[in-house]
Amino acid sequence: MVHIIDGKEIAKKRKGEIAQQVEVLKKSGITPGLAVVLVGDNQASRTYVRNKQKTCKELGMHSVLIEYAEDLPEEELLGKIDELNQDESIHGILVQLPLPAHISEMKVIEAISPDKDVDGFHPINIGRMMIGQDSFLPCTPYGILVMLKETGINLEGKHVVVVGRSNIVGKPVGQLLLNENATVTYCHSRTKNLEEHTLAADIVIAAVGRAGFIKQEHIKPGAIVIDVGINRNEEGKLCGDVAFEEVKEKAGYITPVPGGVGPMTITMLMDNTLKSARNSLKTLQSTK
Ligand code: GUN
Questions:
Q1: Residues whose beta carbon lies within 6 Å of some atom of ligand 1
Q2: What's the predicted TM-score (pTM) here?
Q3: What CATH code is assigned to 139-262?
Q4: pLDDT tens string 236-272
Q5: What is the residue-wise DSSP string for the chain?
Q6: From atom 2 of ligand 1, which residue's Cα is the shortest distance away?
Q7: What are 138-189's pLDDT values in tens digits?
Q8: Which of 95, 138, 214, 266 can pair with 120 through a Cys bridge, CB separation 3.0 to 4.6 Å?
Q9: Closest-lying ligand 1 atom to the alpha carbon of residue 140
Q10: Same-fold call for 28-113 versus 139-262
C-alpha cells in the first residue's frame, strides 16, 4: 500500500513548534518580523503573499506587506530593500518573484542582506549551503528535507533523481540531499532517456512545472515520489508534475498536490524568519 505523505499535517506540527518558540523569543523583547515586497499584479503571486502574511499572524510574528505598481523603477525597489536591511523590526525580507522584466532579479536578490535573506536565494547563502555551512536554506528544498525526515526516510546512500534544475528548487534540493549522503542525479529538459534515470531512483523529485509529466512508467515499484509542481490542468484544477492517480499505484510513498510540498514551503519561510530573529538576539547579547 502506498503511503501518502501528508505535508499539511507535518507543516502543522512544525508551525506549532515555531509558534511556541516565537512566544519564548517575545519574552526577550524580540518579535520575529517578515517584510514581503510585491511588485505588480500577478494573481498567483498575490495569493502566495496573502498566505505568507496569514501564516505570520497565526504564528505570532510581525509582518508587513509593501506593494508597488508594475512600473516601479528598479532604483526605488533597491532603495526600499536598503531601508529594510537597516530596519531592526524586520528579520526577514522576501521579494516575491517573478519581477517585471525591467527589474533585474539578481540585482534585487543581491541587494538583500544575506542575514535577512529568508528565501535563501542570495549567492552567499547558496555558497554556504554548498559547502555545508550554516545558512538560510531555500524554503522548498528545506521543506522537502524536513518532510522526508519526518516520514522516517533514511537518506544515506539513497539514489535521488531530481527532475528540473531551477535555482529555486532543482539545484538546491539536490545539494541538500547530497549533504545528507544521498547519491544525486540531475535530469532536465535536455536529458536523453529520462526513464532510464528515474527508473533507477529510490527517490524521484519532480520539479519541472509541467502537469502530469512523471508517469507510472518513470517510477520503480516502491519508490518515493516528491511532487513540487503547482500547475493548473485544462479544467483549471490544481495539479502537480506527477500523474498522481497512476503513480500512486506503483510508488511506496507519494506527496499529493495540493497538501504536499506547498504547506512545507511556507512553514520553512517562518522557520527561517524565526532563525533570523534568534540570530539578531544573539548579536545583541554579544555586543552588550
Ligand atoms: N515565487 C515563487 N516561489 C517563490 C519563493 O519561494 N520566493 C519568492 N521570493 N518568490 C517566489
A1: 94-97, 119, 139, 168
A2: 0.97
A3: 3.40.50.720
A4: 899 999 999 999 999 999 999 999 999 999 999 999 9
A5: --EE--HHHHHHHHHHHHHHHHHHHHHTT---EEEEEEES--HHHHHHHHHHHHHHHHTT-EEEEEEE-TT--HHHHHHHHHHHHH-TT--EEEEPSSPPTTS-HHHHHHHS-GGG-TT--SHHHHHHHHTT-S-PPPHHHHHHHHHHHHTT---TT-EEEEE---TTTHHHHHHHHHHTT-EEEEE-TT-SSHHHHHTT-SEEEE-S--TT-B-GGGS-TT-EEEE---EE-TTS-EE-SB-HHHHTTT-SEE--SSSSHHHHHHHHHHHHHHHHHHHHHHHHHHT-
A6: 97
A7: 999 999 999 999 999 999 999 999 999 999 999 999 999 999 999 999 999 9
A8: 138
A9: 6
A10: yes
- Could you tell me whether strands 231-232 and 238-239 are parallel, antiparallel, or unpaired per DSSP bridges? antiparallel
Catalytic residue among 119, 202, 227, 241: 119
* Chosen CATH of 28-113 out of 3.30.460.80, 3.40.50.10860, 3.40.5.10, 3.60.15.10: 3.40.50.10860
Provide the residue ranges of all domains of the chain, joining segments of one domain with +. Answer: 28-113, 139-262
Nearest to 205 by CA among 143, 162, 260: 162
Which atom of ligand 1 sits closest to the CA of residue 119? 7
pLDDT one-digit tens code per residue, 64-84? 999 999 999 999 999 999 999
Asked if pLDDT for residue 288 goes beyond 80, the answer is no
Looking at ligand 1, which residue's alpha carbon is closest to its atom 1? 97
The CB density around residue 73, as the number of other CB atoms within 10 Å, is 11
Rounded to the nearest angstrom, the distance between the alpha carbon of 120 and the centre of ligand 1 is 10
Residue carrying C-alpha cell 538576539: 281
Please tell me the predicted confidence (pLDDT) of residue 284. Answer: 85
